[in-house]
Amino acid sequence: MADIKLHGEVFYPSKKVVQYANIKDWDELDKKAKEDYPGFWESIAAELDWFGKWDKVIDESQKPFYKWFTNAKVNIVYNCLDRHVKTSRRNKLALIWEGENGEFKAYSYYALHRDTCKFANILKSMGVKKGDRVTIYMGRVPEIVMAMLACARIGAIHSVVYGGFSVEALHERLEDSHSKVLIVADGAYQRGKIVKLKDIADEALERAASVEHVLVVKRTGQDVKMEVGRDMWYHELMNMPIANRSCEMEEMDSEDPLFILYTSGTTGKPKAILHTHGGYMVGVYATLKYVFDIHDEDRYWCAADPGWITGHSYIVYGPLLNGATSFLYEGAPTHPYPNRWWQMIERYGINILYTAPTAIRGLMRFGDAWVTRHDLSSLRLLGSVGEPINPEAWKWYYTVVGKENCPIMDTWWQTETGMFMITPMPCVPLKPGSGTKPFPGIVMDVVNEEGESVKPNEEGYLVIKTPWPAMIRTIYKDDKRYEEQYWGKYAGMYLTGDSAKKDEDGYFWVIGRVDDVIKVSGYRLGTAEIESALVSHSAVAEAAAIGLPHEVKGNAIHTYVILKSGFVKSHELAEELRRHVGHEVGPIAKPESIEFVDSLPKTRSGKIMRRVLKAKALGQDPGNLSTLEN
Ligand code: PRX
Question: Ligand 1 centroid vs 51 CA: distance in angstroms?
Fold first, then answer.
């Protein structure tokens, strides 16, 4: 690919980058993968350890319920920890952590393995068994990594709820997953303040019945309420004999669930995306290895939150599967000053930085000097995820942060895909704003309403035409919704919910969501979640939420509210409603604006036409209004 003349503005990789890279010829790899797709994945799977071999690499007999590595026996944690502990990687650092308040911790593979085993034994003592659900609600601290691994080690299904979510979001997820245990931190540091996670959890627990035990990790140390018989301190149990050093590994079937992760969908409640031990492990391992070109001496930093899929795949599982050293930072990028990130890159000699466009735009605002006063020469690769990156931010990242030496891996993927799907590798020529092409072997396309491929540079629906190992297996407890939502529109094609274009070089340009999902600062929120939080306030009769472009956040939430009779619109009430949404869903969901209205545009069947609101707000033509009732 490196020698071909491509259309538009292209950044070709330097010879130095290609020479160093694990994969030097993308086309060759793609050809190999397409010639024998199962064989391609099988040879990658063989790099990992299994307790028993598979019968088949891909089983398509019950489409769209695809199975990978059927009947193989495995545990992802064995490959994340135990495998390395048996080698010279035993004393290599697995995790380096810096707290927002400047605290520092580091864990070797040996130490991470030790604490994970102890943690797993604590969970066992609480009665957690294979298949049970455990909810984890914490900030970015090392214990969140161990909590996830401890669950997986004993075959429990973890459900991590992002620490930025609040009462109702947590309650809903606890209830839907029917979790037996909740692992929570007392608090988290964010922008110099303490987010009182345990207090939020207590309120959520009042509304949720299934939780028998709450394990509390001390981070911030303020007073918290401990309910006798239900709540226990993690640090106390870790010092008791039950936290035994050795914990047997649960032998899992390749298709056994590893975790569920809630994400926002087109309608109604968030849905629990289910991932498994075998296929997910292979997909995440391979994509990180090839795309971020992991070398044993690297220090890799994915600046996402473990509570989102990016953190699951590329903070926790991917780096550990690759035996990498990964860095985790607790707090805000600008605390106490806008050079915090750059300072840490210099301090720890980070080689790879993977973040989101919103963070780049946010840091760009403070000017170059905050960056250039630091020595960032350790950086070799940069990455972007979560939303389209605008060329201006791309170029700033490339020039000011990467000093034109570091290719940017713009990775398109989803909670549902589990792994990178459209992504470059260091040897691939880049076009700012495009994630380039699908990962080798994977076939994706842009299609029209009828499911036919559109012409180059025409907009259409982004679809995936081949199964992939880390793919969503189902929506937990809702096979029907899984089938309808992802596979219902076109036979044999997975619908991503995004619109995109493909250019004359076969490069994909993702435009954005075409459903009722809003990406705010790269976080995925559903209009339904925001609307139901608004309607849960006693003053609100009806509400509608839309996303409008925002310079830093990508999109911001704007809402329209119809008040119940007897309530009068005021600035104070609008503020109260914003706070209410923040309290119920989380600070990221707080609407940018609240407009009080007397009616909302609806179809005759009563569905709110958000596209009409959006067009009006943007001063655009609302298009076809034939289904509009009022
Ligand atoms: O719209 C796409 C956008 O994020 C959506 C998936 O969100 P989520 O499940 O929260 O996962 C985010 C992290 C993987 C996609 O449907 N998206 C993600 N990455 C990109 C992107 N849009 C454009 N470019 C990307 N690199």
Answer: 34
